[in-house]
Amino acid sequence: MGAPQETLSAALERLEALGLRVAAVSRFYHTPCFPAGAGPDYVNAAAALETGLGAEEILAKLHQVEAEFGRERETRWGRRTLDLDLVARGNEVLPNRERYLHWQALSPDLQAQAAPDELILPHPRIQDRGFVLVPLLDVAPGWVHPVLGLSVREMVERLPQAARDEVVPL
Which residues constitute the signal peptide according to the record (predicted)? Predict the structure, then answer.
């Protein structure tokens, strides 16, 4: 394992080798660890992938690459060597709008304790996370959240300034 930037670059190459075409990659950003105190700060990026695979198949390949890079899923939001998230797939809302809204409305305390047993798309808290949205702005500024009706640019603009300021280009 090298520096985080090297790990991210190698993971993107591995995704390509597994048939997930990397159409665009954001700049790499230094971001604080989430949740605070769970480990060292991170390097985050966003990638737009092109594939004919379904969401579950994409997620399986992301988890495969994480495992190849030493990721062990022991505790929710625990230390990790690599964290590849599927945050959206076009306009899909999975598994359905009702379940999506349930997870989106979950209180912060319950978020730390409960994990869905099914894929939820878009990510239920994408609109709250600068470390996701700021890099996503580089590759998909016009993507519109299928439930909120807001573009990535609009979601970034709604973030508190402090959340935007902690996402620093490398």
Answer: none
